[in-house]
Description:
By secondary structure, this protein is mainly beta. The protein has helices spanning about 10-20, 45-55, and strands spanning about 25-35, 35-40, 70-75, 85, 90-100, 100-105, 115, 120-125, 130-135, 140-150, 160-165. Helix content is about 15%, strand content about 40%. This is Phosphoheptose isomerase.
Amino acid sequence: xxxxxxxxxxxxxxxxxxxxxxxxxxxxxxxxxxxxxxxxxxxxxxxxxxxxxxxxxxxxxxxxxxxxxxxxxxxxxxxxxxxxxxxxxxxxxxxxxxxxxxxxxxxxxxxxxxxxxxxxxxxxxxxxxxxxxxxxxxxxxxxxxxxxxxxxxxxxxxxxxxxxxxxxx
Length: 169
């Protein structure tokens, strides 16, 4: 999956959706309306298959027995930035599965330097670690798995603490 900056958003989403379904995954939800791009939420029961497909160096056992996992595919538009954020109830693992992307991380609210994530790059984000996914000069497609750190209160979209946001959210 490699889309130039000139590829229309609806074309990118249609192609990404085709790849996801051709791999046998069920899309549980999707959001194409984010100002930075959007995402596909995959059926949680397919987390083992998602890990096997995108994170073959890991096993479902690496996450702890019975741990709730949430697989997603993020689609970040060229020259767009997600909020500078962190989470109280999840860690995340990302892998670039299409195009390239950038990331900034930090243990504090101060942003460090941009790191370019080439195709195939995997990054682990700890619970509470500040991070920002950034679209570079083409569309970035990221396989993401949430590792919920509070089994009694799993993370969700409300578990986003935004330190800074280009879109005023």
